[in-house]
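Input record (one chain):
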Amino acid sequence: MSLSLSPSLERPRIWWRGFWRGVTKLLPQGLYARAALIVILPMIILQCVLTYVFMERHWQLVTNRLSTALTQDIAALIDLHQTFPGDDEKLMRIAQDRLNIDAELLPKGPLPPTLPKPFFSIVDAALSNEIRKQISRPFWLDTVGRSNLIEIRILLDDAILRVVAFRSAAYASNSYIFLLWMVGTSFVLIVVAGFFLRNQIKPILSLAGAAEEFGKGRDPEFRPRGAREVRRAGFAFIEMKRRIERAIEQRTTMLNGVSHDLRTVLTRFKLSLALMPDSEETQELQKDVAEMQRMLEAYLAFARGAAGERAVKIDMIEFLEELRFDAEREGRDVAIAYSGEPIVTLRPDAFKRCLSNLIGNAQNYAKHVAVEAVRDRRFLIIHVDDDGPGIPPAAREDVFRPFFRIDEARNQDVAGTGLGLAIALDIARSHGGDIQLSDSPMGGLRATVRVPL
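The corresponding structure, as predicted from the sequence alone:
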């Protein structure tokens, strides 16, 4: 019995999956970027929380207390003015000498028009609230006209009290030091984190590069470094590489032994047939022995693949010219074209067998064959085109299977082993590449070999 979710529960689940797919697409794909994001994002969130708490608690608290003290001083001046109306000059001098504020009495009149509120209005709001609570008189406030001063005008019964005070008297002006300290320490932490992340990720990239090089048939120079887990993975890769090389070596030794023993038997057959009188039966037997030897060589070539050969730097122009020369010696013509940097790193014998199988397969079923090779920064791409009958699209995957045959197909060797394309594909994949079949501009089949560099 199967259980299914109701539509009301399934829709949020589908929406949640879609949401996370969108978030995943926005995240960086590289390991270094993701690791840096894991380190930096919590740090930024922490700094934002600290800044918010500091703004709400420290700045607001200190600013309110300073604004309260400044308002109390102004209220005291107003009380003294009302209590001793004739001592205004002495009052102003006391305000300047004792309270560190500049105060003066202006003739009574209307207050200036109200100024627009500043965006960052902690001082403005705190002072306004304290003046309303402690003084309860009409007032005018300017906290943005001059950066380091605050001007307050309060409407009295007989005059206007104008007070000019330093901004630091009502505002924690050294708070920027905290912000600079946070930004500076965050920057240092990010730089240090980036340095250590880079050192931790370099061994992983080195391991990935060594695995990629080994997959292309090359012998990478790799030494495990980094954290304990990364070094453990590196040593595991080295041990795996050794086991694969031992397996390849054992298979190569076994194939060489089998090849030697079978060739010895075939040689005895040939000698026996050579000593027999020439007749129609002996000629047929000689053809069968030659066919058996050719099939044996094809089977061993498929089983051996590219084992035992190291990748070396070759000149692709000379390499393709050798293929063209070999085709001309067999009385066939192949057009060759190449573009890009000629020096590439390949297993030359194996890769020559790969292209020879593709070219030979095309020549068996076409009149004209063309080979076009292009090298860019990442791949070596070789197109083998012909004007033959081609292969149906439905069978283009199957023709790479060993011993696969189709009626009137082109994947068969001359004598019918059915291993030519299978060997070519195996060699291309041993270089980390692949072979694809498609329609050729010449009207026949195009075989495209793509090998990473």
